[in-house]
Please model this.
Amino acid sequence: MSRVGKNPVVIPQGVDLQVAGQTVTAKGKLGQLSMSVNPDVTIAVEGGKATVTPIGTSQRARTQWGTARNRLNALVRGVSEGYSKALEINGVGYRAAVQGKVLTLQLGYSHDVVFPIPDDVKIVCERPTAINVSGADKQRVGEIAAKIRSYRPPEPYKGKGIKYATETVLRKEGKKK
Model:
């Protein structure tokens, strides 16, 4: 039995969840998202809760049970609350700025790194050294944040680079004489 899969997904007020075959569509204040569910599980919506049940007792059906439940929960939470990832920039002269639909990063290269902002994600720079990526799709927000971080990952000696706000960079001591 899946401990995660047994729990029903609570559908908050203002979210409309439609199940058509193996496709689930959620509409909320932050937009509309849909996902396709593995054929080994079924989703039923009743009384403001969605339950995921496996079809059969095969190993594959039991593994997909908890996965489908968590993906459905991320879908519902995304259209109602949304997701966000915070990034921090450390380094002398390193900064970021949003100009229209473009994120411009100055990361110590001979040129500025220009990142076009996709339509489904919102990027805000509160300070020149802080970037906040937010959106309805959890996977897409994480993907965009990882792409921005990949332009200059934090290095272990001085800690320079782009890191997640919750990330701790393990620092090395460096050379001794």
User: Anything to note?
Assistant: The two ends are 59 Å apart (CA to CA). The chain has a mean pLDDT of 89.
